[in-house]
Amino acid sequence: MRYSNDEIYKGNFIDDKRNGDGVLTVNKKYIYDGKWNNDKMHGEGTFTLFKDRRWHKGLWEEGELKKYGKLYWPKNSEYKEYEGEIFEGMMHGSGVLIDK
Fold it and tell me: According to the per-residue pLDDT averaged within each range, which of 32-36, 46-50, 75-79, 89-93 is highest?
């Protein structure tokens, strides 16, 4: 389905809302590939920003990355990667940070 704001969604709907598996691409800015519930990212999924190739992968709840996941930030030939506990989309609690 194509929306007026250059969003393209390919996936399942229930009552005209994104539910189940689906992929949302927004104006060549980002893509989310994963589970949906009631029009929100919810469940396993990966969110990737095209501009800087940064990605967040893990468990989403009501549109936010929560509980546990992986975060990846490339910068030139270097990168940072985190795997562990997440709260409100940020590193929080136990985890491993790799800085190369």
Answer: 32-36
Report residue 57 as tokens: 């992968």
Quote the DSSP letter at residue 2.
B
Phi, psi of 6 (to 5 degrees): 65, 25
Helix (H, G, I), strand (E, B), or coil: what is residue 90? strand
The whole-model pTM stands at 0.86
Going along the chain from its start, the domains and CATH numbers come out as 7-99 (2.20.110.10)
CB 96 within 8 A of CB 85: no
* Spatial distance between the Cα atoms of 25 and 9, rounded to a whole number of angstroms: 6
User: Of all helices (H) and strands (E), which one includes residue 24?
Assistant: strand 17-26
CA distance 57 to 35: 12
